[in-house]
């Protein structure tokens, strides 16, 4: 993948998370993160009610309107305590626009009330921005599970973790999916090559005999070419790192994996020291994180398929992918 082309693709897909970018049909079908991962990424989870919305900006001849909302908070479940939170929300969208978007945003109104997921950049979670209050115990239970998960050992300021997720099947051709989190546990910003580069994040499922199967993403990865384009991981930030883009998508279990029990390990590795960070249209040189780190193993069982749907063959991963 050409570096400039790769960067453009990442920017487009990143914009799709916000739902404001119009994409070509060939880029459609990218899927967001499951609920548990979005809760993990959220900076603030709070119960509250929108008391006012003031129009801020109009796009597409008034068919798409952004507003400044004031959220009156009754309880903060995660994050810094506050009585009010200011939000930028979509307050109007023409009914014809969603069909041209990769993933359309939710429209909010005065009086909307419930559980709010607010992300590190101050925006609402694209998929789970507002939840019914009857999900409060579910939210608290998931946050408690995340607080007590087992991370890897630290390597040069990073820890990693992986998990399957019951909410997402991985698509009709896949028996499941795996999410992969990278956390900056240092007190400094860490720069990582973007996940679209081949070999940065490699996920392998190993069966009881030691045979390995490569887990894939939804897109094609390009070889890393120095200096690679990087993404900044701020101190304390958790990022879900997948082959297609960060904080979006997932690893898929291959649809032709034989039935059985597997141990899945995801490896994050980089040996390139110098990269670039693109900000405000400029390429800024940065020193990249280097090292190799693996998640604690994730155990998963693939059930037997009906005889009529058994695959003819399965492609295994190259020998010891994680050791390379």
Verbal overview:
- This protein has 324 residues and is mainly beta.
- It is 11% helix and 37% strand.
- The protein is built from 3 helices and 18 strands.
- It has helices spanning 3-18, 35-41, 136-147, and strands at residues 44-59, 64-78, 84-93, 113-118, 130-131, 158-164, 177-184, 190-193, 201-207, 212-214, 230-233, 238-240, 251-252, 260-270, 274-279, 282-287, 291-294, 298-302.
- A 5-stranded antiparallel beta sheet has the order 3-2-1-4-5, with helices on one face.
- The chain is globular, with a radius of gyration of 21 Å.
- Mean pLDDT is 83; it is low at 1-30.
Characteristic terms for this protein:
324 residues; mainly beta; five-stranded antiparallel β-sheet; 3 helices; 37% strand; globular; disordered N terminus
Summarize the structure.
The chain is mostly beta strands. Helices cover 11% and strands 37% of the residues. The chain is built from three helices and 18 strands.
């Amino acid at each position: 993948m050409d570096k400039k082309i790769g960067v453009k693709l990442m920017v487009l897909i990143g914009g799709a998370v916000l739902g404001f970018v119009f994409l070509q049909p060939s880029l459609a079908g990218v899927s967001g993160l499951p609920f548990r991962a979005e809760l993990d990424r959220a900076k603030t989870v709070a119960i509250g009610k929108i008391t006012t919305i003031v129009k801020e900006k109009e796009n597409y001849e008034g068919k798409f309107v952004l507003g400044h909302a004031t959220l009156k908070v009754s309880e903060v479940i995660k994050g810094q305590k506050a009585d009010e939170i200011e939000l930028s929300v979509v307050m109007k969208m023409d009914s014809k626009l969603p069909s041209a978007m990769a993933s359309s945003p939710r429209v909010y109104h005065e009086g909307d009330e419930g559980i709010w997921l607010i992300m590190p950049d101050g925006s609402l979670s694209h998929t789970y921005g507002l939840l019914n209050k009857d999900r409060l115990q579910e939210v608290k239970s998931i946050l408690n599970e995340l607080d007590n998960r087992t991370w890897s050992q630290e390597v040069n300021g990073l820890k990693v973790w992986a998990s399957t997720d019951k909410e997402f099947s991985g698509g009709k051709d896949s028996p499941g999916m795996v999410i992969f989190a990278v956390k900056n546990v240092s007190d400094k910003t860490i720069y990582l090559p973007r996940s679209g580069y081949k070999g940065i994040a490699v996920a392998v499922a190993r069966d009881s005999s030691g045979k390995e199967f490569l887990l894939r993403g939804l897109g094609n990865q390009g070889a890393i070419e120095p200096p690679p384009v990087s993404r900044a991981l701020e101190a304390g930030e958790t990022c879900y790192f997948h082959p297609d883009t960060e904080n979006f998508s997932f690893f898929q279990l291959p649809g032709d994996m034989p039935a059985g029990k597997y141990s899945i390990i995801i490896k994050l590795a980089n040996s390139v020291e110098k990269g670039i960070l693109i900000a405000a249209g400029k390429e800024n040189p940065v020193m990249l994180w280097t090292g190799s780190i693996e998640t604690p193993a994730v155990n998963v069982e693939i059930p037997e398929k009906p005889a009529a749907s058994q695959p003819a063959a399965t492609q295994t991963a190259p020998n010891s992918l994680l050791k390379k």
